[in-house]
Write a structure and sequence with these properties.
With 394 residues, the chain is mainly α. Among the domains are: 106 residues, Orthogonal Bundle (Cytochrome Bc1 Complex, Chain D, domain 2), CATH 1.10.760.10; 137 residues, Orthogonal Bundle (Cytochrome Bc1 Complex, Chain D, domain 2), CATH 1.10.760. Helix content is 42%, strand content 2%. It contains 14 helices and 2 strands; from the N terminus they run H-H-H-E-H-H-H-H-E-H-H-H-H-H-H-H. Strands 1-2 form a two-stranded antiparallel sheet. The N and C termini lie far apart (122 Å).
Length: 394
């Protein structure tokens, strides 16, 4: 027992000795905390401090229930308050025309809205739709529906282009809006849109809206005094039924009826192919191959609306197979503008001369044409496009 006590006593003495020595050496390397330490601060921009002080001094006492914030400075309000009102208030200085706007629109807007503002896939159409507002499926565009031009300018300026909003200069905004107007046949390509000429543009649907009067004209019809609650009609008649819009036909007859139609279409395409094959060698011999190749590149500006080649169909513009030598407005299954159809009725045909004039300035050559393209700027592009079109027969 005595040996165990001696062992524990020796161990305790050794531990105590080590602790004392360790504390002694550790304490020598620990800096003492000063009684009034200075607080280390981050670097502060002196200009920012001056601005903050000036703002605080000029803004007066804090206001409100919670004593927070301050009145906004005039410069801060101006930075946010840049909307343009229908009466032209806050329209900026600057100007732009459709000629300049075409390139800007192609660069910033065409990927969604198309080269001619006709819309790509389900993206909004910005042009067209005139006289469709009373249709079952109206096309509401800047030209057909919007009553105020300021809406277009304001929206483009603050919200476009998509993903890079607010990046356009005022001149660029004027030019893009001018191109949209030009695509709707509301101005010519040389019209200079600016604050001074803004209201020279007449919006077709400017008077198409009314103040909401439903409280006076409609709500009274549905009040409890006028509403019938029982025995309102002697008999109930079904006046119409909803159409079945499924992809799969519900009746066997539908499948059988579809089969002959498919055969008919195949036969028709086969005939067209045969005609093209026979006519192609004769036409190709007289064509300039290099010019046709250049025309194929230039025709990219037309592909959004027009098709050529095998299986070409009418889109927003007519298919152009065999257009050279054809009467202007000569396709029976396409609805042309009145003036274009009238020229065809008078016997005017598409040839090198008429096509060159039309492709240079479509709206000047045929007033009221539906084609929104402003025209080729280079004569070599016009010549190449005509040569390219010659390579496609009916």
């Amino acid at each position: 027992m005595s040996k165990s006590l001696n062992l524990f006593a020796g161990a305790a003495f050794s531990v105590a000795t080590v602790m004392v020595v360790s504390y002694n050496y550790a304490d020598r390397n620990v800096a003492q905390m000063p009684e009034n330490p200075a607080i280390v601060s981050f670097d502060v921009d002196p200009d920012f401090a001056l601005i903050a002080s000036a703002q605080a001094a000029g803004s007066g006492m804090r206001e409100g229930k919670f004593n927070l914030g301050r009145p906004a400075l005039d410069v801060e309000v101006a930075a946010w308050d840049w909307d343009v009102s229908p009466d032209g208030t806050d329209l900026p200085d600057g100007s732009g025309n459709a000629y300049d706007g075409e390139e800007l629109f192609a660069e910033h807007c065409a990927i969604c809205h198309g080269d001619f503002a006709e819309g790509v896939d389900n993206w909004p159409k910005l042009a067209g739709g005139m006289d469709t507002l009373d249709h079952d499926d109206p096309l509401k565009t800047v030209g057909s529906y919007w009553p105020h031009l300021s809406t277009a300018f304001d929206y483009v300026r603050r919200s476009m282009p998509f993903g890079n909003a607010g990046s356009l200069t005022d001149d660029e905004t004027y030019a893009i809006v001018a191109y949209i107007l030009y695509s709707n046949d509301l101005i010519d390509d040389e019209f200079e849109l600016s604050r001074e000429t803004f209201f020279d543009v007449e919006m077709p649907n400017a008077n198409g809206f009314i103040m909401d009067d439903r409280a006076e004209t409609e709500y009274t019809i549905f009040t409890t005094e006028n509403a019938c609650m029982s025995d309102c009609k002697d008999s109930v008649e079904i006046t119409m039924r909803a159409a079945v819009l499924d992809v799969t036909p519900e009746e066997e007859g539908a499948e059988q009826a579809a089969a002959p139609a498919a055969v008919e279409e195949t036969v028709q395409v086969a005939v067209v192919e045969e005609v093209v094959e026979e006519a192609a060698p004769a036409a190709a011999s007289a064509l300039d191959a290099d010019l046709v190749k250049a025309g194929e590149k230039a025709f990219k500006k037309c592909k959004a609306c027009h098709q050529v080649g095998e299986g070409a169909k009418n889109k927003s513009g007519p298919q152009l197979n065999g257009v050279v030598g054809r009467a202007i407005g000569g396709l029976d299954d396409f609805k042309y503008s009145k003036n274009m159809a009238a020229m065809g009725a008078e016997g005017v045909v598409w040839n090198d001369e008429t096509l060159a004039a039309f492709l240079a300035k479509p709206k000047a050559y045929i007033k009221g044409t539906k084609m929104s393209f402003s025209g080729f700027k280079k004569e070599k592009d016009i010549a190449a496009t005509i040569e390219y079109l010659k390579s496609f027969s009916e």
